Amino acid sequence: MPSPQTVASGPELHNPREPVVPQIPAQGTRKASSEDASSAHREGLRPGLGTLRRAFSKASQWASGCAPQEDPGLLRRSSRLLFRSLRRARDEGPAADQTQAATGPGVAHGREAPSRAIDGVSPQSSTGAGPAELEGEDKSVADLITERKLLAAFEQLRHLETRLVAEKASRTFEQDPTGFARRAMDLCLHYDGLAAEIGAIVLETLGPDGVDAAVLAELARVVRAEEEAHPEPPADGDFLCTPRHWRRHWEDAVRRSARERVQQVSAGEAPGSGLAQLLDELGRLVRHDLQKVQLEVHPAYAAAGYPAWEAYRRAFHGAVAQRLQELAHDAHGCEQLYILLDWASNVYSSPDFLGSQDLALPSELLPPLLAPDVWARLESDYASFLETKIASCFDGILQEEQSRWVAAEAPDVLQGHYRTSLSVDVHMLVAQHVKAAGVISAELEATTLQICTRALGLFLPRFEKAFLESGAVSEPNLCANINACEEFRTHLLARFPGSLEELEKPLVAATCAFQKQLLQGFQGDVQPLFKVLCTKAWLTQDMLQPLLDKVVAFAGHLEHVVPPRAQETLQEVHRYVVREYLAQALRPRERFRGVERVSGSQKMGLDAQAIGNTFQDLGSEATWLGRAIPCVADILGETYKDDIRRHLETLIRSYPDIRRDHVLAILALRRLGHRRNQHLLTHAQDLLRAVAKAGGPGAAEGHVLFEEIEVPTSVDVLVTCI
């Protein structure tokens, strides 16, 4: 028995009020009928009703949506070919009469009985009943389906189905199971044709021409009517009156329509430079279609009490998800991966995607657009590409800085501080990528921040080495680099708290390296000026002022350094000046005796005051350095020798890092005599041990002054010891 898809001709269901016209079956049908008739004559047997029931049960399953997916266009074309064939057979009725007249009675009965039954006329010889009539109908089911009068076609089919079931129950076809089979087959074919037309209407709904709202409303009503007519399968398992599941068929058609619409966007174009454009076109199409559904299609269905918006929304969501899965499979490179992630998380999921928040797609009711494992893979691939890209960006920043060094460009002064493009470039690089990742997901933002942190931690030592080896080392450039490192510590750490702790160590190391180079430059510049101090010429001339002028000039650069680092550097300069002054005083080139020693003590007092005033005016907070030079000057100029012990105690308590060698050098300058020197030295040693044991205030604060002063052993020191 031919399947519904392959039957090319057959009797047509039409109005029972029309005169019954004998029809000539198609050639294939005639051949099959002849063979059946001859076989029946040869063997004297007819096909059993159970065999036909099983055969048409399969056809019913196909009509109910249980068969494999079919091409709706093919099904629709097949149905229409069937309808045209049936109409052609009806038009050729007279020819059929002639053929019947020329055919024997037995053959005529074999061909004619099924046609009469399918047209709604029961065989008189079997039942003796007259034809059953449908009032108010003047068109065949095929014509009604073609004209998309779906509800009328269904009502006529339902009427014929009910009558066929009644005739079967009355054992009308007990002697003619083939006639029942033909009428049942034709009924199934028309039901399938009606289902195919439903699918065709759905596919055309979002097309350029669209579908009239009245047709959509009638489609919804016919689906509901079928559900009411066939609420559940018959108890006897008969394929007649079985549920056709047209609602599921309609939903499948909606999904197929959405899938075809989405797949047609730039079909065949591989992801590449046009990926952003492809996704933009996809977004416009989905937005246009869903807006049309919401504003035109859904109201038409809703008028018939049929919810269409949810079905279309889920269908397009699934179609978009499938398309993104395909694009994600072939996406490569940082830009492409980010475009996909951004479109999925921000464009498609935006409340304004459909142009109004009233039309927003509620994400909590829909499955993820990308499967979790696909999303994780995309983020992982993006992070890998991003790591390479950021490392390349830092290489570019270093090359740009090197070009600026070669051009000897001085740093700008912005808001009172030296500024270099390094700080701006790094801040923009980190902020840009972290912000971009943050709009995708919090996990990707944290990963991006870690990548930037590692890359910056590797960049700082390279930058430090390249700069110190270049010919651009100068006070302004060093100050600008110190400012940049400090901004990294403050701004980046403040903006991303708890994320950049591993940067603390390389930043401190780079800052210290630049500060050290800055101080070494200053020390090399002023070191020769200390050699003229504590000489006999120094007693009568102002040898300190050139040194203080250098200090003031150097402090002018520190005014353009951020306050924490500027104060640190200024205090270090202050400590260096006091330390070198004391070093020169403890190992003088010339020895003072008598009046010269007293004059030297007074001169040291004046120099100590000048140094203190200068650094105080510059803003140095290292007030602890102010007592060192005056204490040594007091010991040298003290006329009452018993008070030397008091000055020595003040010096040791103020500077616990002082050693026995320093005390010997100071006593050697004073030349007090062996016994007094031994007494003072013993007292100093006891005091040093007590201070070391108790931990003086200077030691607790980390103040270091005398520890870095080297005192060579001279003849005078040896004499003092002896």
Automatic annotation (TrEMBL):
Transmembrane annotation, as ranges: none
Region (Disordered): 1-73, 89-136
Pfam families xrefs: Sec6
GO MF entry, a single one: SNARE binding
One GO term of the biological process aspect: exocytosis
Gene3D superfamilies xrefs: Exocyst complex component Sec6, C-terminal domain
Keywords (A to Z) from UniProt: Phosphoprotein
Compositional bias (Basic and acidic residues): 32-45
Record GO cellular component, one term: exocyst
Family classification: Belongs to the SEC6 family.
Protein name listed in UniProt: Exocyst complex component 3-like protein 4
Species of provenance: Tursiops truncatus
High-level lineage: Eukaryota, Metazoa, Chordata, Craniata, Vertebrata
Gene for this chain: EXOC3L4
